[in-house]
Amino acid sequence: MKKSYYSVQFKLRMLITMLLIMVVMLGYSRQASQISGKVVSVEDNEPLPGVSILVKGTSRGTVTNIDGEFTVQAVSGDILTVSFIGFTTQEVPVNGGQTSYEILMESSMGDLGEVVVVGYGSQRKADITSAVSVINMDNIGEVPTTNVTRLLQGQAAGVQVRQTSGRPGEEMEVTIRGIGSLGAGSKPLYVVDGFPVGTSLGQNLNPADIESMTVLKDAASTAIYGARGSNGVILITTKSAKEGVVNLDFVVNQGIQNVPDSRRTKMMNGTEFAQFKHDSFVDRIRYFEKREPAIEEVPLEFRYPEQNTVSTDWFDEILNQNAKFQSYNATLSSGKGGIRSLVSVGYINQEGAVIETGFERFNVRANIGGKVNDFITMGWNIAASHSNEDYASTDGRSAIIGKALWADPRYPVYNEDGSFNDYIGGTNGVFGAANVVQELHEMERKLSENNVMTNGFLEFAFLKNFKFRTSVNAILENSDQKEFRPSTLAGTGFNQAPPREATLYQRRFETLNIAADQLLSYNKIFGNHRVEGLLGFSAQEETYKFLQGNGNEFPNDQVRFLSAAIRQTSTSGEADWSLMAYFARANYSFNDKYLFSASFRREGSSRFGADNKWGNFPAFSAGWRISEESFMPETRWITDMKLRASFGVTGNNAIGNYSSLSNMGISNYVLGGAIANGQILSNFANANLGWEQSQQTDIGLDWAMFDNRLVLTAEYYNRLTNNMLLSVEMPVISGFTQSLDNVGKVRNRGLELALDYRTKFNQVNIRSNVNLTINRNKVLEIRGENDEIWSGGFYSTYNVSQVGKPLAMLHGFKMVGIFNTDAEIEAWPNQDGAVPGTYKYFDANGDGVISYDQQDMIEIGNPHPDYILGYTLGGDFKNFDFNLMFTGAFNYDVFRNIEATTMNMDGVFNILQSGVNRWRSAENPGDGRGATTNTWKWQRESNSRYVYDATHVWLRNITLGYTIPKNPILPNARVFFSAENPFLFTSFPGTNPEINTRGGINIGVDDEAYPMPRTFTLGASIRF
Description:
Largest sheet: 22 strands, antiparallel, barrel
Radius of gyration: 34 Å
Shape: elongated
Oligomer: single chain
Number of helices: 9
Strand content: over 45%
Helix content: under 10%
Number of strands: 53
C-alpha cells in the first residue's frame, strides 16, 4: 500500500508538472507582439500626447508622443488601459491579428488633460506644480488690435497690462507680479515658438497668427530661463496645421476710431481766455496798487473779451475723427500627410486718432512641420513683416498734445487766404508757439521697419524613451527713421517765431539675434510612476548696429536729404551681447497623485564683470492632488483638487551692454592752438558686477468643481530681489560721480485669485472668468539701510524709493489750503514770496520755514493699485455669440503733471475751463483748487493739489457674432461686430488713468500722451 501511495503521488506530481509545462508552452505560443496605435480626442480629432497606455495586470506600458502615437508589447487577449487626466479611462481589448488601433477619448473633466507649453517643452496641465496661466484665446473675442500684447489684457491674475497710449501699433506695458527692480527693468521675457526674443515684441508679430499664450509667473517655471526670468516669461505659440484637415480661412475687419468727449480735456475757449487775461490784469493792479484800474490799463486785445471773434479748439483740430481701421488675414493650412504646413498673409492699416499719423503692416508666415519617418520629426517656421508708421511727438507738455491744450485759442488755424497761420500767441505775456495743425501736416516723421524671424528644429527619437532636439533661431531686424522740420514752422520751444532753420534727423539700425538649443529629453512610465527628464544647452548672441546723422541749413524745404545740408554731423556705433547656459529639469509623478519637479540652470553672460559672469538658478516644486486620495469623498463639488508649492531663483540682466567695463568718452582738447581729438575714461570698471537675483516662494491651490464647471485657482507668492543693480555715488576725488554696483533689496508679496465658470441653460452656453491681483511692494534696502533714491523734478513731482516704503512713491509739498489774507500768511510758517491766493504748504520738518527745495516734501501719492481686476463674460445661443471684457484698477494715485501747465495762472498758457473758479480775492476764493494770477511762486511746484485718485473700470471689448447656417456657398462663415475701449468709468479728470508718461519706475505721472480712441468694427470670417 505504501508503495502504491507513493506511486500515485508521483504520478500526480508528474501530471501537475506536465500541465504547468503545457501552460508555459501555450504562453510561449502566444508570444507578445508589437501593438501600435494613435489616441485622439473625440471633440476635435486632435492627437493627445502624454496618454498613459498600460497592459492591464502587468508592468508593461508606454506614453503617447507629441502626435498621440504609441507602441507597446501585448498579446491577444490582453487589455490596454488607456488613461489621461481630464478624459474618461478606457479599456481596449487586444484582438489576435490586429496590430494597429485608433483610440478615441472623451473629455470628462474639462481641460485638466490639456498639454500646456512650458519652458523648453510641454507638460500636462494636471501635472503642473508651478504658477502658470494659460490664456484662453476663446475668451478674448474679436479684438481689433495691431499688437499681440493687447491679447493679454485682463486675461490672467498677476499680469497687469496697461495701455498707456493710443498711438497706432503701440506695444502695451506688461508687468507680472509687480515692479521688482530699481535699475534693471521689470519687463517680462517673450518667447515665440521656443525662441527668447527679448523684453519687447515690437510691432511686427501678427495677432492673427497666435495659437496660444502661456504666462510663467513664479521662479519654479521661469528659472529655466535663468538671468532673464525674474520678471516672468510669456510663451507664444503660433498656429500650425491641424492633422488630417485642409482649411482656407479669410478674416476681414473694418471700422472707425474716434475720441469721445469724455476723453477730451476741456480748455477755455477764445472768449473765456480773453476774459481770464482781462481779469488777471485787473486783479494784479487791485492787489499790488490797492486801486481800481482804468479800462485803458488792460491791453487792447483783452480789453473787451465779449468782442472776441475767434475761438479755436486746438485739440479738436488735431483729432482725426472716424479714423479708419482695417485688417485682412488669409490662412491656408494642410494637415494631410506626414508633413503639415500653414501659410498666412496679413495686412493691417490703422489711421491714427491724431491727423497725419497712422500705422501700416504687411505680414507673411509659413509654418511647416511633421514626421519625416518613425524616428525623425522636423519643424520650420519663418515669418516676415514690413511696417510703415507716420508718427508725431505726442507725449509731454512741449509735444503736440500738450501744445494743443495750452495754445492761445484766440488765433485761427488758417489765414484768410487759406494758408496756415504759422505763429500762435506771443503777445502780452502769452507764450508763442507753432501751429500744431501745420506742424502735423508739414513735418515729415516716418518710421519703417523690416523683420524676419525664423526657427527650425530636428528631433530624433531613439532607444524608445529618448529624444534629441536641435534647433536654431534667428531674427534680423532693420529700421529707418526720418524727421524733417521745415523752415516754415515756428521753433519747438516758446516764442520762436518762423522762419526758422530747417533740420533733418535720420537714423538706421540693424539687429541680428541668433540662438541655438540642444535638448535631450526622456519620458518613461513604470507602472504608477511617470518620469520626465531634460538636459539642455543654449547659446544666444545679439549684435546691434546704428548709423545716424543730423543736418542744418538747407537751401530749401524740398530737398530733404543730408547731402543738401550745409552743416552735417553723424555718428555710428555697434554693440553686442551673448550668453551661454547649461540646464536640466526632472519631473516625477506617482499615481498621478504626488508630483515633483526640479530644474537647474547655470548661465554666463557677457554683460557682467570678469569675476562674476556665471550665475546659478535652481528651482523646486511639488504638488499633491488631494482629490486622488482614498479618504476624499466622491462628490460632484470636488472634481479635482491640487495643492502645490515652489521655490526658485531667477535673475535679471537688463542693464545694457558693457556696464561692467571702463568705457571711453570723447573729450577734445587744444594742442598748439588747434583742436585735437581725445578720449577719457567715462566710468570705472567693476569686475565683480553680478546678477540681480530674485528668490520667489509660491503656494497655490487648483480646485475644479462640478465636473469642471467651476475652477478656482489661488496663489500666494513672496518674491525677494537681491543685489539690485543700481548706480551708486562715488567720491568726486576719484574723477567720477557714479558707478554701477549690486546694492539694494526689494520685496513683492501678493495674492492672486482666478475663477472660471461654465454652464449651460437649455441652448444657452455661458462662460465667465474673473481674476483678482493684490500685490504689495516694499523696498528693504538701498545702498545701506537709510538711503533713498529721488528721480523727477521740482516742478514735475518726484518718484522716491525709500527703505520701508513701496517703490517710486509720489513726493511733493502737501497742500493744506489757499492763503486768503496777508494775516494768514503771517500766522503760517514762513513761505517766502507767498501772497493771498497762493497754495498753503505743510511744514513737514517743523522748522517754521517752508523751504523752496525738497526739505518739506513728503509722500503725497501711491502709484501702485491696491488691486487689479479682469473680468470676461461670454456665451452663445444657437448661432449667436457674445463676449464682454472688463479691466479695472483700484485705489491708486496719478500726478497730473500737465496741470502745472494747464492750471498755470501766469497767463502764459491757455488754462482749463475749471480755472474760471480760481482764487480772485478773500471774498471770491473760488473752488479752493485754482490759485491766484498775481504770482507764479508756490503754485506750480510738485504738490498734492495735482494728485488724483485714478481708480477706474474699463469696458475693454464688446463682441457680438452670428454664425451663418451652412450652405453650399458659405460652408462655414461668421459675421461679427466689435467695440474696443467703448466705456470708461472713473472720476479721474485726465484722458487715460493708465497713462505712464515717464515710464520705467517713474510711474504715476500724467503729462499727456497720444489720446485713447474707441474703435468700432464690422468683420467676417469664412472657412473653406
